Amino acid sequence: MSVPTLTEAQTETLHRTYRHLHQHPELSMQEHRTAEFIENRLAELGVESFRCGGTGVVGVIRNGDGPVVAFRADTDGLPLQEDTALEYASTATGNLPDGTEVPVMHGCGHDTHIACLLSATEVLLSARDTWAGTLVLIFQPGEETAAGARAMVDDGLWDKAPVPEVVFGQHVMPVESGTLTYSVGDALAMSDSWKVTVRGKGGHGSQPQDCVDPIVLGAFMVTRIQSVVAREVDPRESAVVTVGSFHGGLKENIIPAATEFTLNVRSLDPATRDVVLGALRRIIMAEAQASGAPEEVIEELSHFPRTFNDPAATAEVVRGFEAEFGADRVVESAPLMGSEDFGALAEAIGVPSVFWMFGAHDRGVLDSQEPTPVNHSPFFAPVEEPTLSTGVRAATTAILSRLGN
Amino acid sequence: MSVPTLTEAQTETLHRTYRHLHQHPELSMQEHRTAEFIENRLAELGVESFRCGGTGVVGVIRNGDGPVVAFRADTDGLPLQEDTALEYASTATGNLPDGTEVPVMHGCGHDTHIACLLSATEVLLSARDTWAGTLVLIFQPGEETAAGARAMVDDGLWDKAPVPEVVFGQHVMPVESGTLTYSVGDALAMSDSWKVTVRGKGGHGSQPQDCVDPIVLGAFMVTRIQSVVAREVDPRESAVVTVGSFHGGLKENIIPAATEFTLNVRSLDPATRDVVLGALRRIIMAEAQASGAPEEVIEELSHFPRTFNDPAATAEVVRGFEAEFGADRVVESAPLMGSEDFGALAEAIGVPSVFWMFGAHDRGVLDSQEPTPVNHSPFFAPVEEPTLSTGVRAATTAILSRLGN
Amino acid sequence: MSVPTLTEAQTETLHRTYRHLHQHPELSMQEHRTAEFIENRLAELGVESFRCGGTGVVGVIRNGDGPVVAFRADTDGLPLQEDTALEYASTATGNLPDGTEVPVMHGCGHDTHIACLLSATEVLLSARDTWAGTLVLIFQPGEETAAGARAMVDDGLWDKAPVPEVVFGQHVMPVESGTLTYSVGDALAMSDSWKVTVRGKGGHGSQPQDCVDPIVLGAFMVTRIQSVVAREVDPRESAVVTVGSFHGGLKENIIPAATEFTLNVRSLDPATRDVVLGALRRIIMAEAQASGAPEEVIEELSHFPRTFNDPAATAEVVRGFEAEFGADRVVESAPLMGSEDFGALAEAIGVPSVFWMFGAHDRGVLDSQEPTPVNHSPFFAPVEEPTLSTGVRAATTAILSRLGN
Amino acid sequence: MSVPTLTEAQTETLHRTYRHLHQHPELSMQEHRTAEFIENRLAELGVESFRCGGTGVVGVIRNGDGPVVAFRADTDGLPLQEDTALEYASTATGNLPDGTEVPVMHGCGHDTHIACLLSATEVLLSARDTWAGTLVLIFQPGEETAAGARAMVDDGLWDKAPVPEVVFGQHVMPVESGTLTYSVGDALAMSDSWKVTVRGKGGHGSQPQDCVDPIVLGAFMVTRIQSVVAREVDPRESAVVTVGSFHGGLKENIIPAATEFTLNVRSLDPATRDVVLGALRRIIMAEAQASGAPEEVIEELSHFPRTFNDPAATAEVVRGFEAEFGADRVVESAPLMGSEDFGALAEAIGVPSVFWMFGAHDRGVLDSQEPTPVNHSPFFAPVEEPTLSTGVRAATTAILSRLGN
């Protein structure tokens, strides 16, 4: 297997594409112009494509007999005011589902994912004789809200596209540009978010006996919830329960009728997730009973699936990476507690998947006294090189590790 | 002592005044037009007056040698959308201190207080020969925010006005119109309100170990606070601690840097108040330490003083009431847990005070299956008669009980 | 009505009786020798008597036509090592229900109650012509455990004895000897005690995920219980919930299978009692559910009924006291949060009752820098005079206030 | 390297030794007869020995030039009534530090550790030509209380014995007899135990306002402690905090003056341990302040150090095991949350150590529907073979992997 290098023109296109995308981010499930941009670029490259899941785009390249491999790039930006001072910084705005207009930024680096996959496509097309098989390009919307992978699967992704034997994906991260990191087995945490409406009975603060105080009840729920990770999770397993918001009441002497809080659960192991979610539901229900409160309402806000790197498939990809980049640029790491909806794509058809990280920052940024700008920061600005070419080479290498001659 | 009756013309003026005031409520400490209205009416009656504490108005009537008595009526409305269907319902608006425009309503019945005191003044002036002494009329702004009595005292009320030997005041209440109620000793609760800013250290919900979670901390504060009334207050004393609002965090998976809650304390006994406030401060400080959190900030929002009815002065007033209304219309009651800043006026000069309630509703309203509209309800609409004439007669009676021949 | 005075001989008998009783205390429901002593003394006085409720003794004196009045004295001692240095201090021992041998002391002063009632009987018998009616003398066992009044009623007390129109009782207290105190209406608190067995699932401390931790569960119950008095009881009502013991676990790294705690509730108002007991049961059950624990067991340990002084009957007795002792020796007080089972006697037949306190200490003891020895203290030693003669006079006065000519 | 096999006579001695030890267990730091037994056996084998740390015994075998290796076997039994039905079951008793007489059992299998090390010594002595160097045999008392390793080190173990370049140890476990398990890096958890005396101010349950309730305070400490593992420990690290006992109060209506609880902390990573212990101390101190309580006392009961398997040394041992037993009988496992004081021996001199497990049960026991008897169970009865010969072979193999020709 030999991985083709980017030509000067290909490199120039890569950077132009990246800057264009960076300047035109769109909110989750609203990536209309981004989808059109991708469709146009695929058409230029002679790749047939179709829409799937609204603003998702799927390209299919058939190059003779051979395995089918899928590669996913996510496409959405974030409701964030970019503060990077880049000349191609975003000034875009968008509208949240409730209609609020907000600034939009590619603050999680999905623009690099799109640009690198389009560039890898160009490279592979220009070297058709070095590989054989079918490549499915998945430009997935709505990763940030866990809506996009689900939307594509629900829209019949795997009925419309050839079913692959493995799904690849990658993410830019605040580690050293030019390096790759990966985990074997669990790679990222599952994430589940709930909104809990704590219902009580309001009234005047001087007459608590006529009320059911939902702030006291909510506080008991929050304190009780601490026991879940502390006592119900195997200490050798990983789980986090964060109550990220708690809102109730308008005035110090009026007991409100209800309050609400949101929580987020991170877990690596599905059995642990079941334990935690079950315990949370049990505690929330029982605490409402302890207050003699009306039944509270638990609303599921989002679920990010497991990101699990199949050990055999990962080993194959890593061997390719080590050959291409040198073993010292390819680092195994513990699973991260962050989350992704990438896993839902392979899970839907029961095939293995591999997901890795490529670095965003040069050493100067990483070694600085200043806090390193991380994903979702208004200051997150991957250095263009070697970040982008590393993303292209990693994608090409992974694909060729399966499809290469 | 004989209490003059209202003439037909006086009654007509009383009702016109009341309806005008009801239609033109103003927010606390912004009672500009109300103050002008009162000043004009006092001038019409030939009573000298001066401003005090911004929108407070003080009238002084000197009627020969005799004791000095003060009578207070509070003048502010509430940020409430009136929903009474009265033909003279308010459509007024006002601006909260933060600039927000809100509807305004005389939802606590202070319009009856003003109208009754102006009418009692008219009655007493028309019967100057039945009494002797000095009457100080205090039209006090900002009762709802506990700001007005303080503002008048701070503005030199008792330097500018004759110092009375007793201060009277009254309040309309959702009991039967035509009846009066009173307590001996404690009449209303003290009230103290705080805003507590719970400071933590924010971060991502998947990395709680790098954060100090202010929602968990705040929840522990709220649960811990329950032990104050339960364990530190003498069970035979009365105290309430209500956490009326709790707000922190924007997103389920982001640990905020801070959260804030407000609380209100009700107590009847000053020693109990000290116990409760001391325990709250101790717990809040210690819980912050338990979390390793930065020092939280406790801001005092308001303090309503004790409303204490001097037993001897109260007995004198009650004797007058019983003679005027009949003993069955004058009912002793347990102290109420509501609050007033009336007490600050007498407290500032160390003289006794007496505060009573007069009824607002006819029996039909009180006996109805529907919830009785109480003060601060958008539906609070005292029946005009006998409510207003009872307020006038009660005021006149109380004043004459001290100043009458 | 004129109250006979004690003769020298009667006084001598009174003191001898008291010292004998003080030296021979017995534990609750084991007052065998005390009962015999009382029976013998009644026989000496020519009063017919019968046993009721095991170690209870009832004497009946019929003295012509007239009302029936009952007077109760309780008879049990406490498992306490007397430390009074009195020459007639107790060295008695007894056996707790579980068989443990313990020292016994009349640490609550029931010996004064017996001696005074026997002496009052003697006085009244010697002045039969000054009164008419029937007097029922109730020497009740087991007050300390709330078992005795119940046992006598269950054993048919009111079938066997004439049914009185009022029941009287008195208690010695650490206030000034020679004075009496009383309350109108509520006099003492109701008391309810529970034992709660918190069931979990034990195991090794390193594997909490396989256990249900009953110590964590019990701790959540205790903290949650704080909200009952704080939020569910009208602040103007009185209630206390004390968790007096909590025991579980043997070793720091073994999670026990169960833990247990006991609690005691004090309340004055039956509706408040219902609120508190209902809330406790609700919270305990719901917290077990919140832990996914097996159902816990609540065992009722004891119930002390309301001690309510009928206002009219109390007024009659107080008028007698004031005439006999002077108004300055008869003091009205707020209800005490202590408890008694006296109320169960009158409650069983729906008649009024009156219960008052007589002082135990001279001013030197009360004004001393040392802590005043209170009931249940190993140092509780009422000064003999005027304590005992006051108790006799108070009993005689109360009885004659109803039966006297 | 070739590992000598046990002769028939050696096997017979091994079993006889084991049964004798099993029948004569002694409590921690009281292993007097066990120490004598070991000394006698070493003397029979011609091995010089000395006492160290009271009941510890150290044997030294010098066999020419070569590395120094130490091997530790722990020697104490448990206060447990044996219930195994073995013909050689223990009927021994002993006295706890407080004097209580208790039954004693080798319920943790330390008898197998002693027997196997003595047998391995015999085997190695009979094959002196196959190895060279110095072997230090450490028969350590008091493992169960974390006192023994510390006592030996404090008594100058490494001044008196040759300093080894590696320390080995092994433990019998309820896995399949004939198999070995090991971890690389962290092998067992650190363990720290505290006793916390929660001081309050006692009094009558009806007057909580005069008390500082130590049961409520302790309950708040226990609930607050749940947040340590939940919010302060990196979710990818392992930690457990168990409050294993909580005791306070004698009677439901008396608030005790103090209560006490014990807790145990398990952790793998020293930094995590610091975080947890620091947080516990901070919370306990601050909660006492929140109650206005006197300063509580934290007493450290025990500390079990890290059991860390040096990766290189472990790899060497495992290679030996795999050669001797076959790779399928040698299984890598995740670290266990149990604890050992073995690590303190190597830690004191900064040399690597390796600790592994050997199986106790045959498949019939493991596959049974009945719960598997684990260490510290009254039913823990390792099957004699192949358990004992496996322990001997594992010890011999590990030693020869370093000292063998």
Record the SSE blueprint.
Four copies of one chain form a homotetramer.
Chain A: H1 8-23, H2 32-44, E1 48-52, E2 56-63, E3 68-74, E4 93-95, E5 101-103, H3 110-125, E6 133-140, H4 148-154, H5 157-160, E7 166-176, E8 180-182, E9 185-188, E10 190-199, E11 203-204, H6 214-232, E12 239-248, E13 254-255, E14 258-267, H7 270-290, E15 297-304, E16 307-309, H8 311-325, E17 330-332, H9 343-347, E18 353-361, H10 363-367, H11 384-403
Parallel strand pairs in A: 3-6, 3-7, 7-18, 8-17
Antiparallel strand pairs in A: 1-2, 2-6, 4-5, 8-18, 9-16, 10-14, 10-15, 11-13, 12-14
Helix pairs in contact in A: 1-3, 3-11, 6-7, 8-11
Describe this structure in words.
Four copies of one chain form a homotetramer. Chain A is an alpha+beta fold and 405 residues long. The first copy, chain A, folds into two domains: 8-183 and 336-403, Zn peptidases (Aminopeptidase, 3-Layer(aba) Sandwich); 190-304, Alpha-Beta Plaits. Chain A is built from eleven helices and 18 strands. Chain A has helices spanning 8-23, 32-44, 110-125, 148-154, 157-160, 214-232, 270-290, 311-325, 343-347, 363-367, 384-403, and strands at 48-52, 56-63, 68-74, 93-95, 101-103, 133-140, 166-176, 180-182, 185-188, 190-199, 203-204, 239-248, 254-255, 258-267, 297-304, 307-309, 330-332, 353-361. In chain A, the strands form five sheets. Chain A has an eight-stranded mixed beta sheet, sandwiched between helices. Chain A has a four-stranded antiparallel beta sheet with strand order 12-14-10-15, covered by helices on one side. A two-stranded antiparallel ribbon of chain A has the order 4-5. The longest helix of chain A has 21 residues, at 270-290. Chain A is elongated, with a radius of gyration of 23 Å. The mean pLDDT of chain A is 95. Chains in contact: A-B, A-C, A-D, B-C, B-D, C-D. Chains A, B, C, D: Residues 192-288 form the Peptidase M20 dimerisation domain. Chains A, B, C, D: Its cofactor is Mn(2+). Chains A, B, C, D: GO terms for molecular function: metal ion binding; N-acetyldiaminopimelate deacetylase activity. Chains A, B, C, D: One of its GO terms (biological process) is diaminopimelate biosynthetic process.
